[in-house]
Amino acid sequence: MTEPLFDELIHPSTRLSLMATLTAADWAEFGYLKEQLGLSDSALSKQLATLEEAGYVTTERRLSGTRRKVRARLTDTGRTAFQGHIAALQEIIAEAAGRPDGS
Amino acid sequence: MDGIAAEEARTALDAADRARRQVEQEIGLPRGYWWAMAGGWLLLGVLGSEAPRWAAGMATVVFGAAHTTLAARLLDGRRRTGRLQVSRSVAGHRVPLIVVGMLVVLVGATILAALVLDADGAGHAAIWAAVLVAAVVGFGGPEILRVLRRWARA
């Protein structure tokens, strides 16, 4: 059972989607993430750098033919943080459902 | 908790769920697998009809061995493209069973088609049956697998 732990760093929608995508994959290429999230190169780089600084994501540069491609993957710390954040969101909803006004 | 309203939490969970479902869409086998399978099907059909029995038998064994080698790496459905690798927990373990089941049914369909064509007096019935099923595999393999996965909820 994952302990609910709200994470301010993950919560913004772009980073949440990025983390959710990486949770469902062993790794994903920069191009794929950019397309799925509808971000520019610089915006995605910035989000990845933020998550990498927090130790949630690692990136590696690989040579594919003549082009360099960036792969991102979630770290164990990132996976735990994401699961904790999801559990915290579920807890918020469950608590609200228990309140008379439902908010 | 942290001043987050339930509605906002629900929206965030929906976004996370949507991202996961997008990754699920990537489960499948590479396009090249289906074309290689179609090519093999055609070759076996021609050999089965035109070549000596031993040659057809050898070709079937080689085809089966090659498929087994490929299958070990690809059949889990996690490497459809080179752009991401779907995690084992998302891909599940039923995709290989579905692909193998699909191939067994297609072998049955090839035999049935050959028998029907032969009974109808068509020349080279086995080859035409193989052409028909190879076309189905090559053009429709990914879509058939997608539908079967949905049916099997895999």
Automatic annotation (TrEMBL), chain A:
Looking at the record, the residues that make up the HTH arsR-type domain are 8-95
Enumerate the Gene3D superfamilies for this protein.
Answer: Winged helix-like DNA-binding domain superfamily/Winged helix DNA-binding domain
- SMART domains named in the record: HTH_ARSR
Q: Which SUPFAM superfamilies match?
A: Winged helix' DNA-binding domain
**Gene Ontology terms, MF aspect:** DNA-binding transcription factor activity
Short name of one Pfam family: HTH_34
Query: Can you say what this protein is called?
Result: MarR family transcriptional regulator
Question: Organism source for this protein?
Answer: Actinacidiphila bryophytorum
